[in-house]
Amino acid sequence: MGGRGSKSGGGGGGSGVDVTHNGETTRYYFSEKNGMNYYQRGVGGTPQPTPLNMTVRDFTKRVQANGATVKPVTAAAKAAEQKAYEADRKATNDFLN
Asked: Are strands 69-72 and 48-49 parallel, antiparallel or unpaired?
């Protein structure tokens, strides 16, 4: 049976940052494939090309210049988020089947 998106997004993302702007925090993960840089929102997000093929450093500088604060995501935080996401996807898949 076809997937429902649990693994369809491609790469899981390399590094990550939490961006807080106007009191709202969004988590971004970044990856690189074949010379193209991608970002995704959260673990379950769909990877999208970064504007102007920006690197993580360029992205961080741009959001800070726009008044946001940036905090790196630790490997432990990413692993915990990935584990919770996979458990949720399994429960959803079991329910739908």
From this structure: unpaired
- pLDDT per 10-residue tile (average), the chain, 97 residues: 42 75 95 95 92 94 96 90 91 91
What does the pLDDT read at residue 14? 63
Amino acid present at 91 = A
Phi, psi of 30 (to 5 degrees): -120, 150
Q: Can you list the pairs that 34-37 forms with residues at least 24 positions away whose Cβ atoms lie under 8 Å?
A: none
The model carries a pTM of 0.75
- Give me the helices (H) in 1-97, please: 56-65, 75-96
Query: Do residues 17 and 73 touch, judged by C-beta distance below 8 A?
Result: yes
Burial of 7 (0-12, 13-18, 19+ CB in 10 A): exposed
* SS3 label, residue 34: coil
